[in-house]
User: Fold this.
Amino acid sequence: MKIKLTQKEQFTCHAAALTLALKNENYNKAGYWTIPQDKNLHEWLANDAEAIGSEWVVAKYFGLNFDPFMQKGKRIADVGKGLEIKWTSYASGQLIIYEYDRPTDVAVLVTGKSPDYYIAGWIPVAMAQKPRYRHTKQPTWWVTQLNLQPIENLRKSNYAHTI
Assistant:
């Protein structure tokens, strides 16, 4: 499912990424919001803007309100009542679940780069945290797109309450 952001929405994603970084008290604390060694600050903020964009396209798909400036952390869902949005720029990328992701949420994989995003599919976080998806070298679970449900099925599923 391809969804496009407008130029204004793209600018807003960048503004939100910068605003959220500046407001985060933990931004410079050791081990928190660490910028990966292969990226500089600008690349890292652009990555955050892309992630915000991926959340926005899922909200657009479901017709939900979305505030890109809202600091959610892992306290509340990225979108809706229980949607955890995972983004990768790689078209064939995998959905990666972390130990701190909430097992009651549904994870949605979005791929692509602004302005063109693709909703690849979804899986309940609890189902993604099964041994078959466990990464052998890190504390994460990697789910291939073949193992995701089409986004069109979410509204009709037992997990529709997460929208």
Notes: The longest strand covers residues 116-124.
